[in-house]
């Protein structure tokens, strides 16, 4: 029996499953659209999505999760990527879906990517925050992480948090906690809005545009047959279920937001003339 299979068996016998996907896209991921533009290479260790004038491409995780820490190493489209959008997100099904978004808005060569984040609950989002990056995301792979537990959602890049969305149901703010979500990614053309509000269009002479992925890892509670594989009696074995930002992480979060945030819905008083959303008033 393989070590990974033995660990899985032991986990089941203990009453929980801590999914630690071993970065094999052949086992964990289905390429769902793109007519061959999404490719799994290197015996499942590398995945690429491509976009040309006719179509983009995308994939989804085979498992659904109800809470977890999902990591992906991603190298974004290099050069002139204006008009393109690369997404990496969690989403549930149905018309009142929940969703946790990373979206990477393309740029003219030499200008910074815009990282767009959002949180949907019950089909309603409008919680956008945007950032520039402190590195070139096209030169090498960087780890983009979504931590989702019952208390908070934390967006991180290479271990540095850039955004925290807390569970504030106590003051009437919806929080995604009951709908299982899959991990998704896509590369598509959005030149009607993505780069400078649609002023800069996609240069199709540069196509195909390609984004690359490695090291998908889901430490998560798998949702199957209407039940979670995580046991409520053993939360200590899933430390991310109660994880929060320590003092060092809070300092790094503050550094990112002071230096690299370029839009925050909680500061957009013109957009909310009747008053900012409730979560924006809590410190």
UniProtKB/TrEMBL annotation:
User: Where in or outside the cell?
Assistant: Secreted, Cell wall; Secreted, Extracellular space, Apoplast
Q: Which GO terms describe its molecular function?
A: hydrolase activity, hydrolyzing O-glycosyl compounds; xyloglucan:xyloglucosyl transferase activity
Enzyme Commission code = 2.4.1.207
* InterPro entries to which the protein is assigned, alphabetical: Beta-glucanase-like, Beta-glucanase/XTH, ConA-like_dom_sf, GH16_AS, XET_C, XTH
Which parts of the sequence belong to the GH16 domain?
A: 19-213
> Describe its PTM?
Contains at least one intrachain disulfide bond essential for its enzymatic activity.
What SUPFAM superfamilies does the record point to?
Answer: Concanavalin A-like lectins/glucanases
What does UniProt give as the signal peptide span? Answer: 1-22
Report the family membership.
Answer: Belongs to the glycosyl hydrolase 16 family.
The entry's protein name is Xyloglucan endotransglucosylase/hydrolase
Biological source species: Hibiscus syriacus
